[in-house]
Specification:
globular; six-stranded mixed sheet; alpha+beta
Length: 508
């Protein structure tokens, strides 16, 4: 058998292609960013064609770097930013408009309208999700209602919808000629259109949202023979895995037992706990989602706490304020002070996600005095990530009935030792970083490896995981309680700040 497996890791800000050996070691890797488009306040878009170009480029770059041929790859997997919505013409492959990114809040008024009949949780029993700007369903509806001719083309069967995994899989397997129109259960579970019990599109919800079923991809397991790649450079390599990025990280962290959890620190933060073969309905503001489904096996489910803005806040400090020149400078700047100086930053740029689910929340900085300096602000930026994570952990423990002992962490921000120590302190729990940092891409590669027979079972993957660094809590209990109580007070100031659902009205 070929010695390697590979993954396309298509994220919110960049695309990567990584080749791994059987032990999960990186053999070759390439990465390229794509543009973040902000046409109006609260609107966030990507150019799907640019993402497809970047995907082709990183595949070529990584294969050249590693001197790797298609015959060296047993299979390829895809992991992707979830909920981001693409609608394109199946005859040409051209998107009808830019992709609506998961952070985009232009459908906030529709959230209010659909919530009036039955509340924000009217579809939660079926989908595990509240009505929110976050998920794909209302984004699809917006495109059909606002892009000229889109609804007519969709009803005539000329358009296709997909999250980014679907768009890439379709292009990789032939595009307009022979492309397979598929998604996996994890991505489907993030549209608010899939029934968690049947793992099929729910026709009642489709009718409510006025979305033609012909627009939607076929739902597949996360692992198995999904299609044959026809793209030059990978021609003939089987596509054998698809996982939404946070579920991919759960697999990459080998959290295969109920009660095991991981937190990914990226543009946002996403904490998932494996709940096994049963979906657990949340009563504390979390999401119920599909964790993964390997070929021939029942689906596994997870509780998820989604935080919209974490790493993106560091980027905002860099790009909008110019306080730092590079994101990795935030730790040194925060380290110039011993505490936050009473400053708290609630980064509700696009509302608050779990466990608050408040679309009218907006970002605030509180506690400023003449004493505060940019070091305190930098520290408040990092601490906001840890505070939001504790919010989610507390909700997750209430829903699951389990007390989390150890939190496995991954993503770009886990290289920040100051943040990781503060995370352990504010959680009062051990935080563990794995030796392999690329857990999201690794999880997609693992899914592809299982689907192609490269690995026999998930047991083969457990020995690949090892710890790189462990942080234990050391903060005084009284200090910890005071910091967290003040954070909660700051959050109350940000909730319902916008007077309208969108909060985007122009001021004359």
């Amino acid at each position: 058998m070929a010695p390697y497996i590979a993954a396309i890791d298509q994220g919110t800000t960049s695309t990567r292609f990584i080749v791994f050996d059987r032990g999960g070691k990186t053999i070759a890797s390439a990465q390229k960013e794509h543009a973040q488009i902000y046409p109006k306040p609260g609107w966030v878009e990507h150019d799907p064609q640019e993402i497809w170009r970047r995907t082709r480029e990183v595949i070529a770059d990584a294969l050249e770097q590693g001197k790797i041929r298609p015959s060296d790859l047993a299979a390829v997997g895809i992991t992707n930013q979830r909920e981001t919505t693409v609608v394109w013409n199946k005859k040409t492959g051209e998107p009808v408009t830019n992709a609506l990114v998961w952070q985009d809040i232009r459908v906030a008024d529709d959230v209010a309208r659909f919530s009036r009949a039955g509340g924000v949780d009217r579809f939660r029993a079926k989908t595990g999700l509240p009505i929110s700007t976050y998920f794909s369903a209302l984004k699809i509806r917006w495109i059909l209602a606002n892009v000229r001719g889109a609804r007519e083309q969709a009803e005539s069967g000329d358009l296709l919808f997909g999250t980014v995994d679907t768009f890439l899989a379709w292009h990789l397997t032939g595009g307009p000629q022979a492309g397979v129109h598929i998604t996996d259960v994890t991505n489907a579970s993030r549209t608010q259109l899939m029934n968690l019990s049947t793992l099929a599109w729910d026709r009642d919800i489709l009718k409510e949202y006025e979305i033609p079923e012909a627009l939607l991809p076929r739902i597949c397991a996360s692992s198995g023979m999904l299609g044959e790649i026809r793209h030059p450079g990978l021609t003939g390599v089987p596509l054998c895995g698809i996982l939404g990025d946070q579920q991919a990280a759960l697999v990459g962290q080998v959290c295969f037992q109920p009660g095991e959890a991981k937190n990914t620190y990226g543009t946002g933060c996403f904490l998932l706990m494996n709940t096994g073969e049963r979906p657990v309905q949340s009563k504390h503001g979390l999401l119920t989602t599909v964790a993964y489904q390997m070929a021939g096996e029942p689906a596994r489910y997870a509780l998820e706490g989604s935080i919209a803005i974490t790493g993106a806040l560091v980027q905002w400090m860099r790009d909008n304020l110019g306080i730092i020149e590079a994101s990795d400078q935030i730790e040194a700047l925060a380290g110039t002070v011993s505490d936050n100086g009473g400053v708290y930053f609630v980064p509700a740029f696009s509302g608050m996600y779990a466990p608050y689910w408040n679309d009218r929340a907006r970002g605030i900085i509180v506690g400023l005095t003449r004493y505060a300096n940019k070091g305190h602000l930098a520290r408040a930026v990092l601490e906001a990530t840890a505070f939001q994570t504790r919010d989610v952990v507390e909700a997750m423990e209430k829903d699951s009935g389990d007390n989390l002992q150890t939190l496995r962490v991954d993503g770009g921000m886990v290289a920040n030792d100051l943040l990781m120590q503060f995370q352990a302190d504010i959680l009062k729990r051990t935080v563990v970083r794995p030796a392999t940092r690329e857990t999201t891409a690794l999880g997609a590669a693992y899914a592809a490896g299982l689907g192609s027979g490269f690995y026999a079972s998930t047991s083969d993957l457990l020995s690949n995981w090892s710890a790189d660094c462990t942080w234990s809590p050391s903060m005084d209990t009284f200090v910890c309680r005071r910091l967290y109580d003040t954070w909660k007070k700051a959050v109350t100031r940000s909730l319902d700040w916008a007077e309208t659902q969108t909060g985007l009205e122009e001021i004359p």
